[in-house]
Structures are given as structure tokens and as C-alpha cells.
Amino acid sequence: MEVTRQIFWNVGTWARWPIYGLGLIVIVIFVLGLLKRIRLWKLGKPENRTDRIGKRIVSFLRFGLLHGRILKEPFPGITHLLLFWGFVILLLGTSLIFFQEDITLLLFNWTFLHGNFYLIFSFMLDLFGLLAIIGVILLAFRRYVLRPERLDNKSEDWIGLALIFLILVTGFIQEGLRIAVTRPDFERYSFVGWQISKLFGSSSAPAHAVFWWGHAFLAFGFIGYVAYSRLLHLITSPLNQFFRSFSPMGEVMPIPDIENQETFGVAKLQDFTWKQLLDTDACTRCGRCQDNCPAYLSGKPLSPKKVIQDLKDHLTSQAENPVKTEAEAAEVPPIAGNVISEDELWACTTCAACQQACPVFIQVIDKAVDLRRYLVLMESKFSPEVKLFFKNMETNYNPWTIGFSTRGDWAKGLDVHTLAEKSDAEYLLFVGCAGSFDERNRKVARSLVNLLNKANVSFGILGAEEVCCGETARRMGNEYLAQILMQQNVELFKNYGVKKIVTICPHCFNTFKNEYHQFGGEYQVLHHTQLLLELIRSGRLRSKGSEEMTLTYHDSCYLGRHNEIFDAPREVAQSLGKVKLVEMERNREKSFCCGAGGGRMWMEETIGTRISHMRVDQAASTGAPLVATACPYCLTMFEDGFKEKGMENLMSAYDLAELLERAVQD
Amino acid sequence: MSNDVWIVAEQREGKLKKVSLELLGIGKRLAEKTGGSLGALLLGHEIEGLAAELDGYGASKIFLCDSEVLKDYSSEGYTKAIVDLVKAHQPSILLGGATALGKDLFPRVAARLGTGLASDCVGLEINDQGVLVAQRPIFAGKAMVDTVTPEARPQMACVRPNVLPVPEKSSGSSTIEKVTVEIGPQDVRAKIKEIVRTAGEKIDLTEASVIVSGGRGVASQENFKIIEELASAFGEGSAVGASRSAVDAGFAPHDQQVGQTGKVVNPNLYIACGISGSIQHLAGMRTSKYIVAINKDPEAPIFQVADYGIVDDLFKVVPLLTEEVKKLKAQG
């Protein structure tokens, strides 16, 4: 007996024709649905995402086919991987059958599904089919029994899972029925079908026909359903991984040619780019963003998942009631304040925990900033605190009501020169607003200066000429103000021929490194923890610390997640003495924001728990009495948090520069 | 056109505002330079008693304009009255207070008279040409600008309250001249139906001339009473403030919060009790005229902006201070 199987066994080769017909119909349905979505994405503005094709393909392979980010959470990751690869192999198997029966057999009278190849083919299909069933059962178990908080259940979820489950099960049953009737011994390789066949007698041919057709109808139904449900992510999620942004995560894009713009930010969907709109369709509602969002976890109305889903619903409503004329377009209420509430928009700390967690690289910060830009620049809608911040920035280039001429006063009595006095310095030490004005953070600036002097580093400051780097104004949506500040600094740096910058604040660091190139400023930028580590390694700073200490290090979002500087600060911490560095549960790329980013430092936090209090609790639960920080915002939030929670006698927070200064003292 | 200097005395609900006396003080000095006489314009209804209060501060004439239409302040009614009287008497200089009322009224008056207005002035003098020179802070107080109205008359200026001193009351007396303007209800299109007050007697923090603020050092809501007692010892125009941490801890309500994310205040006197002075707090009060800090910690940053500092337990100092203020107040 030849080792193969008759493809249209029992149902007859005439079945080919209704299958062709049905196949054509569902493909048309699928394509129409997909085209509808593509037309919606094309409402957006153009944006070039076809550069660096090689990198894009790698991104698709690594994060799509290999589930790079999905696997970061083992249980949902592995179960999804089983389902995904089960389905891919089954799809390939079915395609091989189609290829043989409808192409090679018809055209060349050649078949290949026989012999050893058939046995391998049968075994693989059964194996992956079984894995897919295990996957789908575990996913359903997780969704409907374990019910993680981050999953919201819609009918499309159970329909999708049920369809997949039924397709797989009917496939196996019809295989079992076929084997029960034909009983070739080699079908042991179809090990699942073989076991099932034992349940049935040799007169199962009619039942086989029923299940064969049932399987076929379900499979076609599935294809038709894809473009009209969350199953669309089969297409959109890989697309999103392919078209993802390769800019540094911390980079906020400028409003180009701002002087000649008449509208600013995003008022309506058409103001987003096509890629920003594709983001909304790529979302599978997996909720990993929400599980990591400090705003959501502290009880704010913001959930990144909800934002993306609300935008998606808004996009879909545009398909149902398309805007045809300019007049109609003007009637559509702006997104900010209607689709996404102002409270949601202002709650974002731009910490990027959501973006780090997203398996399909959906961006949230860009949308929040675009919508804030609309509120700020078009409607002047912001809280009185934000108004004060903008006003102070505009008049004094710092967030407080302090005259700009006193910006360099912190350095009085220290051995520090301004670049105006000594322009050949190797580094510009950009002190930042906090280091310049805030008494607490001035201490950090002084410690750093003492360390740099001790290590004979050639550096200078800008003194009263320094202006805020513009980071916060930009993230608060005031792009106009941000660009003024940025351009002012770029000019200043150019005049002094600045090439290397060391910053105290990770927010300044991120902006110089990732955003100043937008205005022609290219520098080698170091955060002070990086420079200090270099000085320790080269022996220019020697820690004499012998004290035993237990500390925990808090990753600043803009140093860590946004710029992937996780090790330098930890190594500086290790050098302080006999250090026991204990990690908080959320550390490194999963670190939890202090609550001050994205302009939140300058707004009152009236809804829910204070984010800083949550982080203080997380730090306290390590048992370490000392929190090492590397960011003025974080330092302020920790110290205030300790005081507000009445813990100031139990725990303390210091910048690594302060701790190192103590450790190197004679 | 005379050389006379006029000030517009401000009253609300039958009470004279202190800025009126401050205006009389500077008006007198200006009139001496111009060689004209000083006139005070008082508008309202049934306010003869107030005219007597103005007496003795250097005005040779007090123009009393009494009309039922002028009972409550209205932009239109007051503008018409002042414009008509100025046109009739032709003073060379017209001064008002840069108060909430003044900021509403005087730009309108200046526009009607076709003259300039120096708003929010902190100093006034007469230069060698006999022209009024008004000093105004610009760029959030980083620079001062001298403003003149070279040709148009009268020369108008609004003076910031609490900046210029209240003059000594002299024995010289003013004549009270009743003036009438043709004004009727039809001249005031906006009708006041009701005046709704914010709850309580407390004045708005941003308008207070004395603010006593408590911080975390106050330690409880009950203890905040001693802060309130000190504030009330200062009498009218005083208010209670709080730092963010005190508000956070529930010692004080949010509308008392002073600082970057609360209210920005600049009273004559700011007394910070048990406030360490984080930059966020300083941002809300550093422009106060006099700052007194009471704190146990001599290192507290509040002492860097304070004019007077007391390093001691606030629970000891504040009640003592309250007693002293009460004694001084009792002496008049």
C-alpha cells in the first residue's frame, strides 16, 4: 500500500468546486474588510516608514515570528507562541495540500505528499495541531478562569477562541474518522488522529463527511471574521512590528517649521500620521501597558490601552460616518477633551513603561504629546499650575519665579568657571534648573563639581547664560516654548564650541542626546553617573568607602528605559563601599516612575494615590534604608514621599554623586 | 488745563479702601511740585461719612458725587461719572489704585478721555518739565520702566496698593464739594442682581496683606489654630496659608496652599511657621515684601529668603508673637 492519502477521500473530488467558490467569497470578504481599515489608516498624514528595510524585516522576524517581546511574560507568551506556531504549521500544511492538488497535480500530474515526506508531514501537522489546542485552552483558561484584571472581555474574544478551538478539534475528529475507516498502519504517525480513530468503527464514512465539511466551513468562517474583529491583529501586529519607529524611545518629534504652521498638535484623526492610526488597529487589548502604567496603577483615569482603544473606536466611527466636506470636518469635536479626556492626557508621566511592555511597539507618548499640543497651543487649556510653569519658563527660563540672572549663583565659592571665562574646557557641565536653583539639588551639583575637580576633569558651566533644556515644556505640549529654549541653547553651545556635555538631570541628558539634533545640535552627551564611572575605572577617582551599606537604586525613566543606562549607576553604587545593592521588584526597564516626568512635577496630583508614595513603598519593601537616585526629579519625589509618609527618619535618598563624594573623601 | 492733581478714592460697600489714603499721600507730594491743588473724588451713594474720613490727608477739595446709580460699582456708571467730572474740572493728573476695581475702571476712563494710562505703578514723581513720571516694574520685576504721557491730559496712573505709605493725618482740613453728574439707570446697562460671596469671611490669599502660613512642623489640624490666631491678631487683610505638605497631611484645605502648585502670593508680611521652604513653596511667596521664618532647623532653606528668622520651636514662638501683635494693635 502506498504511503499517502487520497485528498478528497470520501467527500469526492467534486468538493473542490464548492471549496473554490467559498474560498473566493471569504477572500473577497477578507480583502474588503482589510481595505476598509487601510483606507482608515490612510486618513493620516504621510510618514516615511519604509527606510531601513533590513532592520524592519529583522524586527518582524524577531518580534513577530519569534515572539521577542510577547515571551517577556512566560505564561501568556508561551501559550500564544504554541497557538501561533500551531496555526502557522497547519496553514503551511494546508497550503501544501492545495499546492499539490490544485497546481502540481493538475498541471504536471506530480504529487509529493507520499512516502516518508507524507509521514513527516502527518506527524508535524498533528503535533502542531495538538500544541495549538493546548495553547488555545490555556489562553481561554487564563482569560475566563484566571481573569487577569488587565483583560477586558468582548464577544470577539470568545468567538475568536471558540472558532480556533472548533477548527482544530473538527480537524482532528475528521482525521480520526478517516483513519477509522481506511486503517492504514502508517497513519500511526498521525498520532492524534490515530488515537481518535480508536473511538470510531469502520462505518464512520458519513460522519467523516459531516466533520470534513464542518471543518472547512469553520476555517472559511475564520478567514472571513479576521478583518472584522480583533483577529485582524494577525495582519496589523506584524505590520506594526515591521513599520515600528527606530528613533530613540525618548525622542519627541518636533513640529516642523513651527513659525509657519497654522494649526498645532492633533485635533482630529487626520492630524495623526498613518502609522499612528495603524497603532490603534495593531492593539490586541493584551493590557500589558496598563499593568505597567504608573498613572493607571495609582488610580488615575489614564490607561494606555484605553487611550489606544478609544482612538480605534473613534477611527472606526469615521468609517461608519465618513466626513466628506470641510464643513463636516469642522463639526467633529476635537479628540482632546472628547475622545480622550483632559485628565487622561495630563496624567501621563511619559515614563514609557507602556511602550516598553507593548509586544507590538505601539507608541503612546507621541499621541499624548500631540494631543497636549492641541490643548496648549490651540485652546490654551491647561491648569493654573501649568500656566505658572509656562510663564516662569518664558520670563526666566526656569520653572520657578526666580530671576534668570541668579542661575549661576549656586557655584559661588566653588572652583568652577563659566565657559565665558574659560572656553577651552573639555566638558560643558549643564547643571539644569534643579541643580541651579533648588537648594536640595544644588547640593548634588556641588558634590559633582567637587568630584570633577578632584579628578582634574576640565569642565565649565554656562552660569547665568544657561537656559532650561526645554524637555518639560515640550512634553507638556508647549512646543513653541520648547523650541525657543532649545534653539537658544543650541546657539549658545555653538558659540562656545561645545562638543561634550555632561548633565546631572536625565531629562536634560535625553533632550540633548536625542532631540537637539532636530535643531542642528550634535554632541557627545554623558550623564554624570557615566562620567563618574569612567573616572572610577580609570583610577582618577578612588573610593575609600569601607562602610557596609544596604541600598536600592531607583532607575530614572529617562536614564533607564528611555536611554538604556542601567549599569553605570549601579556600578557607581557598588563602588561606594561594602555595598549590598538590593533591587526593587520593578527595576531596570520595568522600573516604576517617581511620578514627576512629563510635566507632572509641576502639577498637583489630586486623583488617586500619589505615584511617588507607591514608589516609596516599593523601595521600603526592599528593606534598604537608602535609596540612590540619579535624577533631581526622582530625588525630590523620594524625599517628599518619605516626609509625607512620615518615614523621613527611617529612609533617606541621595544622588549617587553625593554618595560618591562622601566615599572618595580623605 | 489746571495744574491740579486728582485722586479717585475707592470705596466698597461704604468702606474706604486703604489705597485711597496712600493715593492722597503721593497726590499731595505731586501737587506741591506742580503747584496745583489736590482733589479727591469720591463716588457712591450715601457716603458722606466717608468724605469725612478722607479729611485731613492733604486734599484741598473732596468732590463728593452721590447718586443712587453709583451705589454699587459698575464699569459704565463710574466711568461716565469720572469722565464727566474730569472734563468739567480739567485736572492735570488723575490717579487711581491698581486694585481689582481700578484695573477695570481706569483703562476705560483713559480710553474715553483719549489719554494714556500707566498701570500698576510703584512710584510717581514730577520731572523738570513738570511731567508726571510713573515707575512700573516690567519683566516680572526684573526691570523698572519710567512711563510718561507727554501730550495728552490728564496724565493717568494706577498705583499698586500697599506700596506707598499712608500719610500722617494733619490738622489741615478739606472742603467738601458736592458735585452732580447727569447719570441715570439707563447709563448702566449691566445690572447687579446679586453679589455672591465665597464662603466665609476669609479674604482671598492673593489679596491678603499679611499671611501667616503653617507647614508640616505644625504637626496637626488642631495645632493649626495657633496659626489662625496669629493671623487674626493682625486683623483685617490677614489670611492663613499653608505649605503643600501641610495641605497633604490634611492640616489645612487646598485653597490655602501657597506655592508652585498652589497660590502665588505677595503680601507685605509673610510669616512661615514650621515650613522648611522647598523651592516649590518659595516659588509661591518669595516676592513677599517681608518674610519672617520660624523653624527649629537652622539649615532650613526658608531662612535664605527670610528677612527675619527665628530658630526655635514654633509652638513657643507663635503664641508669644500673637500676644505681642495683639498688644501693639491695642495700642493703635
Write the layout of secondary structure elements.
The complex is a heterodimer of chains A (666) and B (332).
Chain A: H1 16-41, H2 53-65, H3 74-108, H4 115-146, H5 155-182, H6 191-197, H7 205-226, H8 233-242, H9 274-282, H10 288-292, H11 294-297, H12 304-320, H13 326-331, H14 342-347, H15 353-357, H16 365-378, H17 384-396, E1 427-430, H18 432-437, H19 439-454, E2 459-460, H20 471-475, H21 479-495, E3 500-503, H22 506-514, E4 524-527, H23 528-537, E5 548-553, H24 567-574, E6 578-581, H25 611-620, E7 626-629, H26 632-644, E8 652-655, H27 656-664
Parallel strand pairs in A: 1-2, 1-3, 3-4, 5-6, 5-7, 7-8
Chain B: E1 5-9, E2 11-12, E3 15-16, H1 18-34, E4 38-44, H2 48-54, E5 61-66, H3 75-89, E6 93-97, H4 100-113, E7 117-121, E8 123-126, E9 132-138, E10 143-148, E11 155-159, E12 175-179, E13 210-214, H5 224-233, E14 238-242, H6 244-248, E15 269-273, H7 279-285, E16 290-295, H8 302-305, E17 308-311, H9 314-331
Amino-to-carboxy terminus distance of chain A: 90 Å
CATH-level-4 superfamily name of the largest domain in chain A: Transmembrane di-heme cytochromes, Chain C
Main-sheet strand order of chain B equals 7-11-6-1-4-5-12
- Catalogue the unreliable spans of chain A: none
Number of domains of chain B: 2
Determine the oligomeric state from the structure.
Answer: heterodimer
Number of domains of chain A: 4
Strand content of the residues of chain B, in percent? 25-35%
CATH architecture of the largest domain in chain A: Up-down Bundle
Number of E strands of chain B: 17
**Average predicted local confidence, pLDDT of chain A:** 95
SSE series of chain B: EEEHEHEHEHEEEEEEEHEHEHEHEH
Name given to the CATH homologous superfamily of the largest domain in chain B: HUPs
Percent strand of chain A: under 5%
- CATH top level of the largest domain in chain B is Alpha Beta
Q: Largest sheet of chain B, if any? A: 7 strands, parallel
Helix fraction of chain A, binned, reads 40-55%
Shape of chain A: elongated
Under the CATH scheme, which architecture of the largest domain in chain B would be assigned? 3-Layer(aba) Sandwich
As for the CATH topology of the largest domain in chain B, it is Rossmann fold
Number of helices of chain A: 27
